[in-house]
Amino acid sequence: MDYTNYIVGTAKELLAIDSPSGFTQKAADFVAEQFKKLGYSPVQTVKGGVFVDLGGKSKENSILLLAHMDTLGCVVHEIKSSGRLKLTNVGGLGAQSIIGENCRIYTRFNGVYEGTFNLCNASSHVNDDFNGAKRDYNNMEVILDEMVSNKSETEALGIMNGDFVCFDPRTTVTEKGFIKSRFLDDKLSVAILLGYAKYLSDNKIAPERNVYMHITCYEEVGHGGSACCPSDVKEVLAVDMGCVGDGLTCKEHQVSICAKDSGGPYNYEMTTSLIKAAKENNIDFAVDIYPHYGSDAGTVLRAGSDVKHALIGPGVYVSHGYERSHVKGVENTLKLLKAYLG
């Protein structure tokens, strides 16, 4: 069976669910339901992640696969005297990367409102310093799609500081196989892990060693994988976006194997085994160093687990922006999971 359509379709559904770090319950419900449909018994962690045991023939060398369903986003920092909203970011979302984007403001008790995030005094026909104005959270604001003109009117809608603000993913898949969307990091990898779970379920395959999956919910703020590593796990493999850019060799149609990120080198033996599996199975791959990157695998180690760790993922261009990957990158990542896990 070709699992590409399942993965891409599942990714599109998950991408449509707003889920910045700390606001992931609906995404968790969706992910858990997909595992249940495949015949597994997922559990939700206290923190809010989704954990599932896929089984295996032996627990002597168990492996934990990680991907994260949380994304970048914002929360309301201040309701301004104009009734517009000043934001603060959740994770590394740069204000300049979301200028002009539509957004949704989730109140705690009064429903959801819509708006647009833009430069203050955003009309170039009016603003003498339109080109020179700094694009940051101090100089940008949400203009609500409501008839409000002061702070009291916005507060009367039920909007308050701390409300989550989520941005349109604008997901599309082109005829040539390019997948374009915000938040491919890391919902595309979550869908790939679900595709691997479906492959095992459809074919009634019991892996040689026990395979666990943890779909985490705080990766973008640095502690997604810091809990729930079973005691029998010897290896941790994060499946997250593979970097594409100057000085790197990976392209969107490949699976990337990370040798080192900002936290240091990944386990040499495990990374070598992944490279060997890719070579022996004619998988289109690249090995790269990610200069500004951290993964859930690193947080597992920092939490104190004595495990080997590695990182792979489909090539994704324009990280923390409007991102692009390719169905071939999805396929090569799935192939590498199959080859490495047996």
Describe this entry's structure for a reader.
With 342 residues, this protein is of the alpha+beta class. It is built from seven helices and 19 strands. It has helices spanning 4-15, 25-37, 151-156, 184-202, 268-280, 296-302, 327-341; strands at 43-44, 50-55, 62-68, 73-79, 85-90, 102-106, 112-119, 140-144, 164-167, 172-173, 178-181, 211-216, 233-239, 242-244, 255-261, 264-265, 285-289, 308-317, 323-326. Strands 1, 2, 3, 12, 13, 14, 15, 16, 17 and 18 form a ten-stranded mixed beta sheet that branches. The chain is globular and about 65 Å long. 48% of the residues are buried.
Keywords:
342 residues, alpha+beta, 10-stranded mixed sheet, 7 helices
The helix/strand class is: alpha+beta
Q: Which shape, going by the Cα principal axes?
A: globular
Q: How far apart are the first and last residues' alpha carbons, in Å?
A: 17 Å
Q: How large is the share of residues in beta strands?
A: 25-35%
Q: Calculate the mean pLDDT score and round it.
A: 97
Radius of gyration from the alpha-carbon trace, in angstroms = 21 Å
Fraction of residues in helices?
10-25%
**N-to-C SSE string, H for helix and E for strand:** HHEEEEEEEEHEEEHEEEEEHEHEEH
Main sheet summary: 10 strands, mixed
Low-confidence stretches: none
Total of helices: 7
Total strands: the figure is 19
Question: What does this entry show, briefly?
Answer:
Helices cover 25% and strands 29% of the residues. The protein is of the alpha+beta class and 342 residues long.
